TrEMBL record:
Assigned keywords, A-Z: TPR repeat
GO molecular function, one term: ADP binding
InterPro entries named among the record's database cross-references: AB_hydrolase_fold, NB-ARC, NLR-like, P-loop_NTPase, TPR-like_helical_dom_sf, TPR_rpt
Protein name as it appears in the record: NB-ARC domain-containing protein
Domain NB-ARC: 360-530
UniProt organism field: Drechslerella dactyloides (Nematode-trapping fungus)
Residue windows of the TPR repeats: 916-949
Region (Disordered), start-end ranges: 314-335, 796-823
Biased amino acid composition, Basic and acidic residues: 796-806
Record field: transmembrane: none
A Pfam family it matches: TPR_8
Length: 1136
């Protein structure tokens, strides 16, 4: 006999059992440790948030032990009277608990945003009578990220969470991985293996947020650090990090897995105070007594913040008061706080040293006084972007409520990405799915306010041409041939171009050359200002600065690099020393150069580059390599998160970037997510690589990093794909030479094919997959498995393309179906939307009635004990409405939904997200009862209000629109249904992918609508596609799958294919009876449609039997007077 696979009995016995953790539901939410009897005497709220896989109470508790191991009394520094309470006796101290377990049978699926939302919702309730009381948050590990996300959400949704962000005066982060717990990932694999050995499930989704430079984490921290500084004075922040390595293997009872989790590189927020504690990650938040020195340091920071809180809030108060009436005629707009997040996305902060260049900012302002478009033109390195940034900041200061918009215009991909950022920042509705058109349409309207758009780097018109997937120049659906055709124009707007090409700049201004400004040369004062930071009175100092400026061809770029180098050398290094470094060939004063101005500048920048690069390479070789990789991309701006993961010393990536910035080689965005490299420095760096022993290294390194970072299509990380796309396009222009580089190129092409397929861009998917196939087949050592994988992907895309080409158009006339169209079609159309609704399970009517009576009794008891308007009572009421959904003969769910909606409206206001969702729920209740006019009005209200809160293309927004379309069909409003279905389907395909259940549902509804127009054959093809996709993703017995099969059977019936129709109806009915029960709405609908088929075939006795079963079921579920019940009665009478 062969040995059994797996661990032996002895191994099993020797293995230590892993602790199985479960968070009790009673420990979730807030627990208050201390508060004064008289609430008006409480001066501050302290809110503590624990980390991952932690008990909400034990997180803050230490069990001291004597040397012999004897346990002493537990110490909870939040709860014990002689700890934090003694230091802040007038504080309400509480902790927040959430289900943080990520492995074991109790592992919870959690998202950071969901936890933050729960925190805010519960905190809002706890502070319902004290919205102005200051708050200090204390977070350990992941709890600190929850605090940041909660602050972001509270700031963005002040109506939903009133006063929370305004009242936040301090935050203490204890071991919070602001940059991700990158180093801890080295041991993560070992921990997973240990957990897997015990056959315990894991939920890794929440851990993904803790990866170093994870995009979600970067965005949260970036947005948080931006928001906390918007309203002066800013929130007080303090970070503590660990100074001892942690035995992270304790998670799986393996003391050999040991490392730092959140050290200084990750546990610090730049620009804010911080300190290390000589503790590991598991003890950083636990203290043994009031005299514990670590506790004292944490306590002192909290107490200091508390002491500052009152004054801080009083300082903020004036900004909350309305401004004095304006005499300018602008009215309330003058009083609005400046919304940086919505209207200002400048890539760089103002440079503290700006050379005025004969008042160039004033010249720009004068030009804009006469024309809405102005162009800055100058050679590479002349400072065009520098001037544009300075003017944009000046404009923002002069017009505080205006929007400032930045477009990187060097490539198609960067241009499109910039427009998408604008669309999202300004919350512009993306009608029709064309981002460029939507932004242009919005900004073209004077009513949408003042704005400035900077298009930086418009140097090559051909690079912005609109191309087909095969690379041919084409006109798009709007008749545009260039992205520049989408530049907006409005009397309320201004457009500032920067370009190196005079003829192109003139063309952008429609040959109005008087609005073109050539960048002037630096004056002597400008040069001295750039080198010294001021204009010296000492003639000799100024003269040597002027001499260096001339030696560097008065190039602002070269002079800035020289100034950076001189500063890096320290006080003993002088401008004269730098002049000596320039060496032979430096232009002599008064001697005319034989070079052109352009060549002079290039030569000067090249010399400055060589000096800077030698210093850089000697100081930090890894930073020097990073510089070469950045330059190889040949891009104006680069998102850097993928580079951080790939450096040999990833934890030091921030240091490398800082060094490059300090040497004047790159610029970093304010939010630290992007860097830019000027074209001249790129050229110098590329020349450096080409002259080395390995001229392809930098490009292939960039290709490898991008390939590794670009997500596979099945991950559905489409936001990351979109952010990386400009970089992907750049690296694909390179032609790798090594086998590894060629293989990376093939892998990246394959990923791109999958990405475009999931977004429904089938032509592009075919191009990338065909390119991938060529790469794989041209490799000397062909990998047959990889080639087969590509061919399968190609076949899948081609099949999808065939289905798409045969998909029905959503083209409906406002008239209803004629003559022989069976009435059951309208019933089916109304019910097909039910996949989005909460349907009762497969229980008998009697069981359902018993459950309903029990829930009603519980609701009545809750009303008696707590009152009708108590939040817990309303939750009970909502639960009853959910249970009644679809089995509500008296329409009781409508009254309950109304009650919940009225409560939400009074509590949160008509435009909060909770209120919008309850509006949608009430619309569904009316919809199910056949009261379509009421349903349509509520759907419209929900959609209108949701548009103002949710991002364009939000799945929730599209779901409302799709539901609304179905009601329009029931009302006979076919034109509105056509438009709603078209927009919903386009949005869902772009956001969710073509095979997402919600996309498939909308496509099915569109097909059924087209069927009403008699387009039977193409509808069959589309329904088959939907059915196959649902069988793959949802399973053959899923409710939605069976519903689609029923729709296909109706199609067969309408085309007189009675035998096929009857077989399919009966097959569906058998499955529904087993899975859902005889009394389920879907089961009854299939019986009804089968009865109609049998009646049409002349099989009246069989039809009569089906109708009788349906009628009895309808009476129980919907009542005698429901439209569906009345319809079945008519059918039964016709065959009686």
């Amino acid at each position: 006999m062969s040995a059994a696979v797996g661990p032996s009995t002895a191994q099993e016995a020797s293995r230590p059992k892993l602790p199985t953790r479960v968070i009790d539901s009673e420990d979730l939410g807030f627990k208050i440790f201390h508060e004064l009897p008289k609430h008006d005497e409480i001066e501050i709220d302290i809110v503590a948030v624990h980390g991952l896989a932690a008990d909400p109470d034990w997180t803050w508790t230490l069990t001291p032990r004597l040397p012999d191991g004897t346990k002493l009394k537990d110490v909870n520094w939040l709860k014990d009277d002689d700890m934090l309470h003694a230091a802040l006796p007038k504080a309400r101290i509480m902790r927040f608990g959430y289900d943080s377990i990520w492995y074991g049978s109790g592992a919870a699926k959690q998202r950071l945003a969901n936890i933050a939302n729960e925190l805010l919702t519960d905190l809002k309730y706890e502070r319902r009578d004290c919205e102005d009381r200051p708050i200090i948050f204390v977070g350990h590990c992941f709890g600190g990220l929850i605090m940041q996300k909660a602050y972001n959400l509270a700031k963005a949704n002040d109506v939903d969470y009133p006063g929370i962000w305004r009242a936040t005066t301090g935050m203490v982060f204890i071991g919070t991985p602001h940059q991700g717990a990158g180093s801890a990932l080295h041991s993560q694999g070992q921990i997973y293996q240990a957990i897997a050995a015990h056959e315990l499930p894991t939920e890794e989704g929440i851990l993904h947020n803790l990866e170093h430079e994870n995009e979600t984490l970067v965005d949260i921290v970036r947005e948080f650090t931006r928001l906390v500084n918007l309203r002066p004075p800013p929130v007080n922040l303090f970070c503590f990090f660990e100074q001892k390595s942690t035995i992270v293997g304790k998670i799986v009872k393996d003391d050999n897995i040991k490392e730092f989790v959140v050290g200084e590189s990750s546990g610090v927020l730049h620009g804010h105070p911080y300190s290390g504690l000589p503790l590991d990650h598991f003890t950083l938040n636990k203290y043994k007594s009031p005299k514990d020195r670590n506790y004292i340091r944490v306590r002192n920071e909290i107490v200091t913040m508390a002491e500052k809180s009152k004054a801080l809030l009083e300082t903020r108060t004036p900004s909350q008061k309305p401004a004095a009436p304006s005499m300018s005629g602008h009215g309330p707009a003058q009083m609005m706080p400046r919304q940086h997040g919505a209207g200002l996305r400048l890539p760089y902060a103002r440079d503290p040293i700006f050379a005025p260049r004969n008042n160039i900012l004033q010249r720009i302002e004068e030009k804009f006084g006469k024309n809405v478009k102005v162009a800055l033109c100058g050679m590479a390195g002349s400072g065009k972007t520098h001037i544009a940034v300075e003017y944009a900041h000046k404009y923002s200061k002069d017009f505080p409520v205006a929007k400032v918009l930045w477009v990187n215009a060097r490539t198609v991909e960067q241009f499109e990405r910039s427009y998408r950022v604008i669309l999202e920042d300004l919350r512009i509705a993306n009608k029709g799915g064309n981002v460029l058109k939507s932004v242009q349409r919005h900004l073209n309207q004077d009513a949408n306010g003042n704005w400035l758009m900077v298009l930086d780097g418009v140097d090559d018109e051909a690079s912005l041409a609109i191309l087909s997937a095969s690379g041919d120049k084409i006109k798009d659906a709007e008749g545009k041939s260039s992205l520049l055709d989408y530049v907006p124009q409005s009397m309320s707007g201004r457009v500032l171009f920067t370009s190196r090409v005079m003829s192109l700049a003139s063309s952008l201004l429609h040959q109005k050359s008087e609005y073109l400004i050539e960048i002037p040369a630096l004056t002597d004062d400008d040069t001295a200002l750039l080198l010294y930071g001021n204009i010296p009175n000492d003639t000799a100092k100024k003269q040597i600065a002027v001499e260096l400026g001339r030696a560097l061809a008065k190039s602002p770029l070269a002079i800035n690099m020289a100034a950076a180098y001189i500063r890096a050398q320290g006080d003993g290094f002088l401008i004269r020393n730098y002049l000596e470094f320039l060496g032979p060939g430096t232009p002599k004063p008064g001697v005319e150069s034989t070079l052109s101005e352009k060549d002079e500048v290039q030569q000067a920048v090249d010399k400055a580059w060589k000096i800077a690069y030698k210093f850089l390479k000697d100081k930090d070789a890894e930073a020097a390599r990073l510089m070469l990789v950045l330059a190889s991309l040949n891009l104006q701006t680069v998102r850097t998160f993928f580079l951080a993961k790939g450096t040999d010393a990833g934890a030091r990536f921030a240091e490398h970037v800082t060094l490059l910035v300090n040497l004047g080689l790159i610029r970093q965005s304010e939010d630290r997510t992007e860097v830019s490299v000027t074209p001249l420095i790129q050229l110098c760096a590329q020349r450096q690589v080409s002259q080395s022993d390995d001229p392809v290294w930098a490009g292939e390194r960039a290709l490898a990093l991008v390939t590794a970072a670009f997500p596979a299509a099945e991950s559905e990380e489409f936001e990351t794909c979109e952010i990386l796309y400009p970089i992907v396009s750049a690296v694909l222009k390179m032609q790798p030479k090594t086998g590894a580089g060629i293989n990376d190129r093939g892998t990246l092409l394959f990923k791109l094919g999958g990405y475009h397929k999931h977004l429904g861009r089938l032509e592009a998917a075919l191009k990338f997959l065909n390119d991938c196939l060529k790469v794989r087949e041209d490799q000397p050592n062909k990998d047959k498995d990889l080639i087969e994988k590509v061919n399968k992907a190609l076949d899948s895309v081609k099949e999808e393309q065939r289905r798409a080409e045969s998909a029905p158009e959503v083209a409906m006339s406002p008239t209803s179906p004629g003559g022989g169209q069976p009435s059951a079609w309208n019933n089916l159309m109304g019910k097909v939307q039910g996949v989005m609704r909460i349907a009762p399970g497969a229980m008998s009517p009697e069981q359902h009635q018993q459950m309903g009576e029990k829930m009603k009794a519980e609701l009545a008891e809750c009303e008696k004990e707590l009152g009708k308007d108590h939040e817990d009572t309303l939750r009970k009421a909502e639960g009853l409405a959910v249970a009644l959904h679809g089995r509500d003969p008296r329409g009781e769910s409508i009254a309950i939904r109304k009650r919940v909606l009225e409560w939400c409206t009074a509590r949160y206001g008509p435009r909060s997200l909770d209120t919008i969702r309850q509006t949608y729920n009430l619309a569904l209740a009316y919809d199910v009862q056949g009261q379509y006019d009421e349903a349509a009005e509520l759907y419209q209200t929900a959609f209108k209000n949701a548009e103002n809160l949710l991002a364009p293309g939000s799945p929730e927004l599209l779901r409302i629109l799709s539901s609304m379309a179905v009601v329009y069909v029931a009302q006979g409003k076919m034109a509105q249904a056509e438009e709603a279905l078209r927009v919903a389907l386009a949005g869902q395909q772009a956001k969710l992918g073509p095979d997402h259940p919600e996309t498939l549902l909308t496509r099915q509804n569109a097909a059924l609508a087209a069927q009403a127009q008699g387009k039977f054959e193409i509808v069959e093809q589309d329904l088959v596609h939907v059915l196959q996709a649902q069988e793959r993703f949802l399973g053959p017995d899923n409710e939605a799958t069976l519903r689609t099969a029923c729709s296909l059977a109706l199609n067969f019936r309408l085309r007189k294919r009675f035998t096929e129709s009857e077989e399919l109806y009966k097959l569906v009915l058998d499955s529904q009876r087993k899975m859902l029960g005889d009394a389920h709405l879907d089961t009854l609908m299939t019986r009804l449609m089968l009865g109609e088929l049998l009646q049409e075939e002349g099989k009246l006795p069989q039809a009569k039997e089906e109708y009788k079963v349906v009628l009895d079921g309808r009476k129980l579920l919907c009542g005698e007077k429901h439209p569906d019940t009345l319809y079945v009665k008519k059918r039964l009478a016709a065959v009686a």
